[in-house]
Design a protein that fits this description.
It is a lipid-anchor. The chain is an alpha+beta fold and about 300 residues long. It is built from eight helices and six strands. It is about 60% helix and about 15% strand.
Length: about 300
């Protein structure tokens, strides 16, 4: 779509039938209402941290009012291009080098807003602005590459340290679990051992009690006292033969060689215990007690003679 401005009268020719007076009127300006693309030349700009950049861009605009575009400014495209360059330098001076790369979109939006505010009286509207290339000085580029490499090494070191820490934590956790399991196993072993020992002690006590009951029953039978006397004598001779085997210090009675008197003394104690009346029980004396004692003494003398001969 084209809009033409007539010279002389300053009238704007619109679509449809327009009449021009020869010699007085002629077409002077032809404005296109389509979107126009303009390359912004490369220019130098200094950032906030005093880094010089070479930057260029592309400008997209459209003529909204052909009359203002024809009579409001001499060359609208050149005016908008210069405005875009000056606005770009102004906006770059507010940002550091790192923010120029991170905030590229916000920088484009700021340039578009600044151009639209200034170009409103020209009948031109800026649709968008795009930065094409940003050229950094070689030394700055090298320092940026070194910074990137340092950052990568830092991340690698951090990742390696985190891996080492996780490994150490896993090893410590494994040792902890191993110790816990070992302690639980030892506890269970001690419990089982204690239960086994308790069962053994109980079994021994039951066996001993049963032996005592059997022995008591045997002593109440005929000639039980003689058998008990013989057992005491055998145990005395056996214990006397083991003296001074485990230690060089022993305690002996004054009549250690008189086996008869020692056995008689032991049997006297045994007889006193077995014949002692129970509390509250009536006293009774057996008629054959003297005969039992005499037969016991005779049997004991025979056994002692046999032990001496052996």
């Amino acid at each position: 779509m084209l809009a033409r401005a007539a010279r002389g009268t300053g009238a704007l020719l619109l679509r449809g039938l327009n009449i021009l007076i020869p010699v007085l009127d002629r077409i002077r300006y032809v404005q296109s209402l389509k979107e126009i693309v303009i390359n912004v030349p490369e220019q130098s700009a200094v950032t906030l941290d005093n880094v010089t950049l070479q930057i260029d861009g592309v400008l997209y605009l459209r003529i909204m009012d052909p009359y203002k575009a024809s009579y409001g400014v001499e060359d609208p495209e050149y005016a908008v291009t210069q405005l875009a360059q000056t606005t770009m330098r102004s906006e770059l001076g507010k940002l550091s080098l790192d923010k120029v790369f991170r905030e590229r979109e916000s920088l484009n939006a700021s340039i578009v807003d600044a151009i639209n505010q200034a170009a409103d009286c020209w009948g031109i509207r800026c649709l968008r602005y795009e930065i094409k290339d940003i050229h950094v000085p070689p030394r700055v580029k090298e320092s940026m590459q070194m910074q990137v490499e340092a950052e990568r090494r830092k991340r690698a070191t951090v990742l390696e340290s985190e891996g080492t820490r996780e490994s150490a934590i896993n090893v410590a956790e494994g040792k902890k679990q191993a110790q816990i399991l070992a302690s639980e196993a030892e506890k269970a072993e001690q419990i089982n051992q204690a239960a086994g020992e308790a069962s053994a002690v109980l079994a021994k006590a039951k066996a001993k009690a049963e032996a005592i009951r059997i022995l008591a029953a045997a002593l109440t039978q005929h000639n039980g006292d003689a058998a008990a006397s013989l057992t005491v004598a055998e145990q005395y001779v056996s214990a006397f033969s083991k003296l001074a085997k485990d230690s060089n210090t022993i305690l002996l009675p004054s009549n250690a060689g008189d086996v008869t008197s020692m056995v008689a003394q032991a049997m006297g104690v045994y007889g006193a215990l077995t014949k002692a009346p129970a509390p509250g029980a009536p006293h009774s004396v057996s008629s054959g007690s003297s005969r039992d004692v005499q037969s016991t003494d005779a049997s004991l003398d025979e056994e002692l003679d046999r032990v001496k001969l052996s």
